[in-house]
Write a structure and sequence with these properties.
Elements lengths: L2 H7 L2 E5 L4 H12 L3 E5 L15 E3 L8 H8 L3 E4 L6 H6 L1 H21 L4 E7 L23 H20 L2 E7 L1 E3 L11 H10 L3 E5 L5 E2 L1 E3 H12 L6 E4 L5 E2 H12 L4 E5 L14 H7 L7 H16 L1
Helix pairs in contact: 2-8, 3-5, 5-6, 7-9, 7-11, 9-11
This protein binds nicotinamide-adenine-dinucleotide.
Length: 317
């Protein structure tokens, strides 16, 4: 039986971080497809409101002692590991905490998966924080990695453990390195969520702060496209890292224009000097995602921002 067929018959899937922004969107789609899903989430940044009621829910920490025995009892076929401490600034302030969640927590997931014969684990890593300032623009998976934060370092460290578990125990895996994901349900704390912050400010008619000259760029990929890539990754037998991105650089002024046209009004902006250590350009090549997953982003930036703003506005009513 091919791996793709195996996935289509899979019934038991665990999603760590399944109450969060990307994880809950993934869980909804997996359940729509008829899979049996368990969510593991401590709700530290996720929300009970986003939990799919058809999913089983374990409200526990990644480092919970019961993880291995719970996995053995449940017998999952596939595990998506998305739970993480996602705030880059917090990782700078408290690198030990970041390491505990993002390395030791991930290691607990790997151990539980290995000891319960999970067939495959998919890990949500980061492209935005792993490559660092690089001359390779757009940046491919083959570029050297020079992460500029403990968050990026810890994501990279866990990537290496995935490869190690495959080499030693044959635990199958795929690593997806996301660019800057945006869309409905994005947590407004943390650094990744500039679109979440600005759409929220717009919907509440509040000012927001633009740092630097606004010419810094990011590669914004819409959450539904990311979820499609995660689902495709469940059906392939291929290890290694795959960027999930649009390959398009968007600067802060282009982002502001897209939000203003979605809302039909001007944002109230406060300008502030650039922040030390902030990456100037970030854009990831996505040829490997097309080649291996047959994935390409389907939602344009204008459309994605419009959907995000409509959702934020609806929440504000
Ligand atoms: N959003 C982005 O732009 C982006 C970019 C690159 C990578 N990622 C990765 O994608 C994944 C999902 O990110 P998101 O944007 O949905 O963030 P999120 O904060 O909405 O989701 C993370 C979830 O993990 C849970 N969690 C955190 N620590 C936990 C712990 N110790 N034990 C159990 N649960 C815990 C949170 O409650 C939350 O529900 C993360 O691994 C993140 O690093 C996100």
């Amino acid at each position: 039986m091919s791996f793709a067929l195996l996935f289509s018959y899979m019934s038991k899937i665990l999603v760590s971080g399944g109450a969060g922004f990307i994880g809950s969107t993934l869980v909804d789609k997996l359940i729509d497809q008829g899979h049996t899903v368990t969510v593991l989430d401590s709700l530290v940044s996720g929300s009970r409101d986003y939990l799919n009621l058809a999913a089983d829910f374990w409200e526990i920490d990644l480092l919970d002692d019961s993880l291995i025995s719970r996995f053995q009892e449940a017998g999952f076929d596939l595990v998506y590991h998305l739970a993480a401490q996602i705030d880059v600034r917090k990782s700078v302030d408290d690198p030990i905490f970041d390491n505990r969640v993002n390395v030791l927590g991930g290691l607990n997931i790997l151990e539980a998966s290995r000891q319960s014969n999970v067939k495959k684990v998919i890990f949500s890593s980061t492209g935005g924080a792993i490559y660092g300032e690089t001359e390779e623009i757009p940046t491919s998976e083959y570029a050297a990695t020079y992460p500029l934060s403990p968050y990026g370092i810890n994501k990279l460290a866990l990537e290496k453990y995935f490869n190690y578990y495959y080499q030693l125990y044959g635990l199958n895996y795929t690593i997806l390195r996301f660019a800057n994901v945006y869309g409905p349900r994005q947590y407004k704390g943390g650094e990744a969520g500039v679109i979440a912050l600005f759409t929220e400010a717009m919907a509440h008619d509040k000012p927001c702060v633009l740092y630097g000259d606004g010419k810094q760029t990011r590669d914004f990929v819409y959450v539904d496209d990311v979820v499609d890539a995660l689902i495709l990754a469940g059906g392939i037998d291929c290890r290694g890292e795959i960027n999930i991105s649009t390959g398009t650089e968007i600067d802060m002024w282009q982002m502001i224009t897209a939000i203003e046209s979605a809302a039909g009004q001007k944002l109230k902006l406060t300008l502030s000097p650039g922040r030390l250590g902030e990456q100037r350009r970030s854009v990831l090549a996505n040829a490997r995602a097309l080649e291996i997953l047959n994935w390409r982003p389907a939602v344009s930036f204008t459309e994605g921002v419009r959907r995000t703003y409509d959702w934020v506005k609806q929440q504000a009513l």
